[in-house]
């Protein structure tokens, strides 16, 4: 089992804080396993077993819990003294009105509460409404490149990267023996996302059209897209669809954490732009499954990997615009920002000049970085750092 140390550290930081800890992310990214690891950490640090109450509402063992009042009473009856109790509820969204039980448990001074839920019913955009802002959200992603290396320590970085972008990094895939088994596994996850998380939730009936939109978006990761553009392309291909329907489909994919949308930011004007956006997929194994394991487009695949890593490192990520030039990523956090260009190779002088030119247009002192697959030593060109991307991905 691969330790998800960065997420465990976040849980540890908020241990015993008067906040509900909610773990969100794409299906099978490891949310339930993370809570199991955290429970082991509690036990290792002196918490007694009877202080941990753990319920998985998908387990038939708990089928008697049919509404929020039964859930609340069941847990409350186990709070037999003033000791601190650590409560873990998996798939809490299966209970109608679950937020009432969660809120009532939250106000108890001797309760530390952790919940997960499938993305069909417990989404980031709804948490504030359901739980009145009494929570922190831990946004979980599939394995990082660094975590993936723990599973395959004997592979070279290049071999590991090829496996990472082809087989994907959902944690369970590292236990599977071959590509056929992984494809079957990813197929089941894709169908669950499509049917349970998007079609059912959004009340969509045209599965074929939904698949077509997902295929189009996945085939164009890292490219500027608009809903008008998608609707026009599909209509021209004989699949008539209106802009509002495309918006609904993409919204469903984003809410299920299948796709991530990033918008544009005018660096000089210091404003967010509404025209066009880029989409990135939560796991590249899903991309290769959907596209029939089509290879190629390595530049945009590399962009996808870097984008997800920036999210893991706690950045808000935007596409940068400076005059007529584009910056692949403007990554912002409480400590400032970093401007990043991602290029599969910069061995061609014209390519290197293009990437440098865009970054030189930015007149501030924040870090500027070019990440490339080229095996090159760390370099600095007038304050612009040039790094091998795999080394950057393995940074602490």
Put the structure in a nutshell.
The protein is globular and about 70 Å long.
Strand content: 15-25%
Give the averaged pLDDT, no decimals: 91
Largest sheet entry: 8 strands, mixed
The number of helical runs is: 15
Stretches where pLDDT is under 50 for at least 5 consecutive residues are: none
Helix content: 40-55%
Tell me the structural class: alpha/beta
H/E topology pattern: HEHEHEHEHEHHHHHHEEHHEEEHEEEH
End-to-end gap: 20 Å
Shape: globular
**How do the strands line up in the largest sheet?**
7-6-8-9-10-11-13-12
Radius of gyration of CA atoms, rounded to a whole number? 22 Å
Let me know the number of strands.
13
Structural features, described:
This protein is α/β, with parallel strands linked by helices and 396 residues long. 42% of the residues lie in helices and 21% in strands. The protein has helices at residues 5-13, 31-44, 68-76, 98-106, 124-131, 145-151, 157-167, 179-202, 207-219, 227-236, 243-255, 284-290, 298-312, 349-360, 389-393; strands at 20-24, 52-56, 85-90, 111-116, 135-139, 259-266, 271-281, 316-322, 325-333, 336-343, 367-372, 379-381, 384-388. The strands form two sheets. An eight-stranded mixed sheet has the order 7-6-8-9-10-11-13-12, sandwiched between helices. A five-stranded parallel sheet has the order 2-3-4-1-5, with helices on both faces. β6 (259-266) and β7 form a beta hairpin. α3 (68-76) runs parallel beside α4 (98-106), α7 packs across α12 (284-290) and α10 crosses α11 (243-255). The longest helix has 24 residues, at 179-202. The mean pLDDT is 91.
